[in-house]
User: Which sequence fits this backbone?
């Protein structure tokens, strides 16, 4: 079957009805062995900010949110801090897109937030994370130091590693060479979720830093870590993890993991997402040796999204 015929076959099945995909928790990596799709989790902040606006009946400005952070009660301060981070993230997106900034930010915002961060008590770790994230958006060194403290939190202060998860995302998405050691250190974490996350985000760092560390993770005991390392390597056009990508594009490896532990890869959407990401990695590598596998999956896999991903990977090789 030719590439054109495969394209037509996939297009013909577009009319198939299916339920919308389930929206996963931002902490899903800590609960399920997933391949992480590196992306900013600003949606969390936006959702919180939207909820805050609905409660107050208004959309606060940056200065108003700052005032609440400095002077409000405990809950009000945290909500305002989340809303402020959402505003700074919106500014960053506008700046990257060359658009007008939606929020006015004064020169005093950074110093005031740094003072607020410095004045927090030891048990205000959630607010410490949010203020540090805000300062990181402002490129203030206090933000980096604050997030480094979050990464060092113990289980009692950060149950289930939720704040470490978000701090790792905040640093990983930027790919700043200065923070490479902070992120790559989690490749040695006892928590396979945090190892997986670190492997997924190393693709944003310079190649000379990331590739040697990622190659070391190809032998990790956890499948998600190995797959994330292989996927990240594909972004650098490094084929070291291609065997993992080929295995990850099929179902068998997930069935084997599930047979060992019924909780592993029990959800169809998790398996589908992993397979799609593995196929995208194969597409980036564009190796002639993978054409037969891609054609096989594009023509006959039972999952439409997987067939489409295989088709896109085939098109990238042409």
Assistant:
């Amino acid at each position: 079957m030719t590439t054109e015929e495969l394209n037509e076959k996939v297009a013909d099945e577009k009319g198939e009805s299916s339920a919308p995909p389930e929206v996963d928790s931002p902490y899903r990596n800590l609960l399920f062995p997933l391949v992480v799709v590196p992306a900013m989790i600003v949606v969390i902040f936006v959702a919180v900010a939207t909820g805050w606006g609905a409660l107050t009946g208004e959309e606060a400005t940056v200065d108003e949110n700052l005032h609440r952070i400095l002077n409000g009660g405990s809950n009000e301060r945290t909500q305002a801090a989340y809303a402020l981070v959402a505003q700074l993230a919106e500014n960053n997106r506008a700046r990257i897109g060359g658009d007008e900034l939606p929020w006015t930010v004064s020169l005093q915002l950074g110093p005031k937030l740094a003072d607020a961060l410095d004045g927090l008590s030891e048990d205000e770790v959630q607010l410490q994370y949010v203020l540090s994230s805000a300062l990181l958006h402002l490129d203030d060194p206090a933000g980096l130091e604050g997030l480094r403290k979050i990464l060092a939190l113990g289980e009692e202060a950060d149950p289930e590693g939720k704040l470490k998860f978000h701090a790792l995302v905040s640093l990983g998405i930027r790919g700043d060479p200065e923070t490479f050691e902070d992120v790559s250190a989690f490749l040695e974490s006892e928590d396979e979720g945090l190892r997986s996350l670190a492997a997924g985000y190393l693709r944003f760092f310079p190649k000379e830093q990331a590739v040697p560390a990622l190659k070391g993770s190809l032998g990790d005991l956890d499948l998600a870590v190995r797959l994330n390392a292989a996927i990240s390597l594909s972004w650098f056009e490094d084929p070291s993890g291609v065997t993992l990508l080929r295995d990850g594009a099929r179902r068998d490896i997930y069935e084997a993991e599930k047979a060992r532990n019924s909780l592993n890869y029990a959800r169809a959407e998790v398996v589908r997402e992993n397979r799609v990401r593995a196929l995208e990695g194969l597409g980036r590598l564009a190796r002639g040796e993978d054409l037969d596998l891609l054609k096989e999956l594009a023509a006959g896999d039972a999952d439409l999204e997987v067939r489409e991903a295989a088709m896109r990977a085939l098109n990238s090789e042409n």
